[in-house]
Amino acid sequence: xxxxxxxxxxxxxxxxxxxxMDICRDSRLANRGRRGDDNPNRDLTYRGPTDMxxxxxxxxxAAWSLAIAMLAWSGAANASAFTEALTKDxxxxxxxxxxxxxxxxxxxxxxxxxxxxxxxxxxxKKKLSTKDRTDLTAAHGRLMAALNGGxxxxxPKQASKAQTSFDCWLRAVAQSGGKDWKCIxxxxxxxxxxxxxxxxxxAAKPAPKPAPAPVAKPAPKPAPxxxxxxxxVFFDWNHTNIRADAQRVIDAxxxxxxxxxxxxxxxxxxxxxxxxxxxxxxxxxRRAARVKAALGKLGFQAGNVSAVGRGxxxxxxxxxxxxxxxRNRRVEISF
Length: 335
Prior knowledge:
This protein is mainly alpha-helical and 335 residues long. It has 2 domains: 15-195, no CATH class; 231-334, CATH 3.30.1330.60. Helices cover 49% and strands 6% of the residues. It is built from 9 helices and 4 strands, in the order αααααααβαβαββ. The protein has helices at 15-29, 49-72, 81-97, 104-113, 130-154, 156-176, 181-195, 244-260, 277-297, and strands at residues 231-234, 265-269, 305-309, 330-334. It has a 4-stranded mixed sheet with strand order 1-4-2-3. Helix 9 links the parallel strand 2 and strand 3. Helix 3 runs parallel beside helix 6 (156-176) and helix 5 (130-154) runs antiparallel to helix 6. The longest helix has 25 residues, at 130-154. The termini are far apart.
């Protein structure tokens, strides 16, 4: 008959032996009409080597009984590597902890052996402290993400270890109220070690977009023509005669037009505000006519030259009425 390992001297009961001792305590409490797990007056005192020998005998008998029951189960023909590992790992937990075939771990082992989809226990269904619930809920989320992300197929043995170690951790916390610190630590460390084997698949990089077909660049637009230039011919006060400097401006305007092939010219005469409006209108027209005549002498046909007067209505420099302003006595030449 198989026996469980003896404790080293002075080491105290480890998690395997503590679970075994629970079975013995449960058997002592059975006469009180309640199972040890439910009894608030449960005696958790370790009784020493005498109790340990009894525990070892009971554990051997129970392990053989559960092994016989496991051999009677018919494994699923389509069992995967993960369900096979899960069957063994849950069976190992069942033999370590409670040693009878209706233990939840034994039930899970049998379900896995039959090829059923066995999931880890949900912390939301357990009575836990706030801190334990936070830790276990986070761990449960990580575990489910890994299992649903291909952990079962990627590394079946470690995926099974992660799931069964999580259930071991959850049950140890729930049944001891967080007091069985060594069992909790061992199960949690086993869970984290197994989870470290999970390698999330790297998302494939999207195929690079094909380079756009080359598009022929449109021919550059011709540069816009320069804005029409204007020339200004100034006059003496109350005069319409062309001064020498004014003639040079007219000559420059003619040269500009001929270089660019411009044939149509607009002349606008102006006056300052030193006279009355009617007189200023007349003299502005006269000044425009004098410039038109000068253009005619330089080869511009009269029909291509437009000459008008604006009087004092559009001064180049704003002044009060009656002010003589040389810059307002002018004719503007534009094309």
